Amino acid sequence: MTKFLLAVHVLAAIVAIGPVTVAASMFPPAARRALASPEDPRAVETVRLLLRICRVYAVVGVAVPVFGFATAKNMGVLGDTWLIVSIVLTALAAVVLVALVLPRQTAIAEALEERQVAEGTDGGDGDGGAATTTTVTAPTAAAPTLTSRATVRLAMFTGQFNLLWAAVTVLMIVRPGSTTGA
């Protein structure tokens, strides 16, 4: 049973955490491209897609610690220092993703969409890419989040998220002080 749980834990980490780290890393440059090219509806579509990937795989990523705890319990290593440190780092990574990365991605994506509608470049309605004209009379609340600086700050938080997962991965492989035959 331990081998099965370990296999599911590792597969869940690869399938769930991998896409989040890649999509989250791609988001800031994609947002900067969309910011620099307001006439390009595909740029905003890319940002929306990356946000959707991050949201979906963040939820799927819950399986990683669930199967991790089950594996650790079966292996009898729940009290090992390397595992406790990994659990703390995983919790920190989750907090960074949920509190710092996803809300900023959402704000940037919403601001880009609002700007796209306000400028009448929402991709048209199937008429060969012609822009649809829409008028927005009041400034939006999301407008302040639509800056290059906001994407740089998001990239910093994304980097922290990725570094936390890299540290967890190293701890899972090296398992310092482990007596389980690493």
Mean pLDDT: 87
User: What is the H/E order?
Assistant: HHHHH
Shape: elongated
Please give the number of β-strands: 0
Spatial gap, N to C terminus? 19 Å
Strand share of the residues?
under 5%
Uncertain residue segments: 125-143
Based on CA atoms alone, the radius of gyration comes out at 20 Å
**What's the story with the biggest beta sheet?**
none
Separate helix tally:
5
Structural class: mainly alpha
Helix content: over 70%
Structure description:
With 182 residues, the chain is mostly helical. α1 runs antiparallel to α2, α1 packs antiparallel against α5 and α2 packs antiparallel against α4. It is elongated, with a radius of gyration of 20 Å. It starts with a helix and ends in an 8-residue tail after the last helix.
Provide keyphrases for this structure.
5 helices, mainly alpha, 182 residues, elongated
Q: Secondary structure elements and their pairing?
A:
Layout: H1 2-36, H2 41-60, H3 63-75, H4 81-118, H5 148-174
Short description, anyone?
The chain has 182 residues and is an all-alpha fold. The protein has five helices and no strands.
